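[audit] Reproducing an earlier prediction to check determinism. Same input, same settings, fresh worker. If the tokens differ from the archived copy the diff job will pick it up downstream; this log only records the rerun itself.
[audit] input (190 residues):
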Amino acid sequence: MFIGHFILGILLAHIFYVIHTSNTESIAEQILLIRGARVMLDVDLAVLYGVPTKVLNQAIKRNKERFPLDFIFQLTGSEKDELVTICDRFKNLKHSTSLPYAFTEHGAIMVASVLNTHRSIEVSIYVVRAFIKLKEILATHKGLAQKLAELEQKVTKHDVHIRSLFNAIRQLMEPATPTPHKQIGFRQKE
């Protein structure tokens, strides 16, 4: 009986910890870029929503009609291997026989509606905010990249003008080649 309460206490402490550390920044760090889409893996969503990954995937399979191809896709074996190689936090996937699912922003929100728990609804708000924050950051970088390209164009134009100025100065610096002049005055014949 005591051990049961102890385990329940540890479980509640873990849930409390995950709820309070599930802020926008920590969720934004879990968003990956795979196949050109910003996604979260089923493993990360399961932790956020407080359910085992197996339960999350079973709920997805029971509600396939809610998850079109632009909401969810399954990673290939090579993508999983690359992910395990790059990210240490996915080392548990290395020996897993099942391939993880990747959820886009809309898919991650749909998971919350499929799970339909109080915790999943709370966390889905943080997930939406994380995706929005990521979009804002990318928009800022796009604006910065555009300004940098414009500046590069200006510098390139200035480079052309500076080169032509240097060429003109070099021509002025070259000693003038003497041209034969006719002498003015009388000439004596010898």
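[audit] rerun output stored. Observation attached for the diff report: The mean pLDDT is 76.
[audit] end
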